[in-house]
Specification:
With 377 residues, the protein is of the alpha/beta class. It has helices at residues 2-18, 21-40, 60-71, 84-92, 106-111, 127-156, 180-211, 213-218, 224-254, 262-286, 290-307, 319-324, 329-343, 347-376, and strands at residues 49-55, 75-80, 98-102, 116-123, 166-173. Strands 2-1-3-4-5 form a five-stranded mixed sheet, sandwiched between helices.
């Protein structure tokens, strides 16, 4: 009797699962996607860090030094600037993570047999990349210094103790102590906005449909856009409360400095919020149950977390995943929030990210609102 009841219950559950093929497909596909993302994206082995070159010497000796950094796969010499102002703008905009400054007398100092000094500036807003760049800068500089000294001694037929020919002086900006909390806490704003608004919006609309109350709203004089706005505004308020809560907790508990404009941060958070609300609204139009909406939301947010640079640096990922990251709105918002909070930059340094988020907001919300309106009709 017990076995019969148990078998019947198991059979009933299997029938219900098979009647929902979309949810069944998600349950099988999601582990594969998790394995794929964790296998390729979950790595801190940073390579090809964008490097700025400020070569004031432009001598054969300085070019030889740059070749040493170019040969190592830790750095990619992407930018050549003529002054420190250009260098700062590139680092503030997040286009480069480090800069090497070669003084005008570098070649002369080496030719005279004296120690030549090189400056290395590192963006410490991302401790993972900063630690790697810091170690690599020193190691490459020391290896080159030893190579030069060995050449000198070989030319003179001498051996013994020697002074390094090159002294690399490193300087970390924005986060000198490389505190991980300074990097993670601001990003929590984007993650909370993404999770909270997407899941709540998707499930709230589907819940109305499951209970049959959505039909009651449709027969009222309320317009479709009013229904959409009325459903979304409460979650906007909740999201902003959470944003302020994270900022306050970050400052009080972790000592995270807010170096930029708070009103600008809230304004751009509202812009990003349009994309997350639009995603939740779109999910509600393709889901018939709350469970399906929840799984669909998790399905969209999982790659968002890994491909946005929240946990793992994008520079450490394969090129095809770096390419996919450009269609993830959270990637751009994390650059914005970290730039404002840690670097204190303004909109002028973040305009590429602002434009990208604006485009995503219009496309995602426009598509979701259009589909939602058709679903009501």
């Amino acid at each position: 009797m017990l076995n019969t009841r148990l078998f019947s219950l198991i059979r009933k559950e299997f029938i219900q699962i098979l009647r929902d093929p979309r949810t069944l497909a998600l349950t099988f596909f999601m582990p594969v996607m998790q394995l794929f993302l964790l296998g390729y994206a979950a790595t801190n082995d940073v390579r090809n860090v964008p490097l700025i070159v400020f070569d004031q010497d432009k001598s054969p000796a300085s070019r030889t030094l740059l070749d040493a950094y170019r040969t190592a796969d830790y750095f990619h010499l992407d930018y050549d600037v003529n002054n420190e102002s250009e260098m700062r703008q590139l680092i503030d905009a997040g286009k480069a993570r480090a800069a090497i400054i070669i003084p005008p007398d570098y070649g002369d100092q080496l030719a005279a047999g004296r120690q030549a000094k090189v400056a290395f500036v590192i963006d410490g807003s991302d401790p993972t990349i900063a630690n790697t760049a810091l170690a690599a800068a020193n190691l490459i500089g020391q290896a080159k210094a030893i190579d030069i000294v060995v050449q000198r001694l070989s030319a003179r037929g001498q051996s013994g103790a020697f002074q390094p020919a090159i002294a690399v002086r490193t300087q970390v900006w924005y986060n000198p102590d490389l505190v991980s909390a300074y990097y993670m806490i601001p990003a929590m704003i984007g993650l909370i906005l993404q999770f909270l608004t997407t899941i709540l919006t998707a499930t709230a609309v589907v819940r109305e449909r499951e209970r049959g109350t959505i039909e009651q709203l449709i027969v009222t004089p309320i317009r479709a856009w009013e229904l959409v706005v009325g459903k979304l505004i409460p979650y906007v308020v909740i999201a902003f409360i959470d944003t302020v809560e994270i900022l306050v907790a970050g400052v009080l508990l972790f000592g995270v400095p807010i170096n930029g404009s708070l009103p600008l941060l809230l304004l751009l958070s509202a812009l990003f919020l349009v994309t997350t609300l639009g995603t939740g609204l779109f999910i509600s139009t393709i889901s018939n149950t709350q469970q399906e909406a929840m799984l669909s939301a998790m399905f969209t947010m999982l790659p968002t977390i890994f491909l946005s640079g929240f946990f793992f640096p994008l520079a450490a990922m394969p090129w095809f995943l770096q390419g996919l990251s450009y269609v993830v709105p959270l990637r751009y918002f994390l650059i914005v929030v970290r730039g404002i909070v840690l670097k204190g930059v303004g909109a002028e340094a973040l305009w590429p990210e602002i434009v990208a988020i604006s485009i995503f907001a219009v496309v995602i919300m426009g598509t979701a609102a259009t589909r939602f309106r058709k679903r009501l009709d």
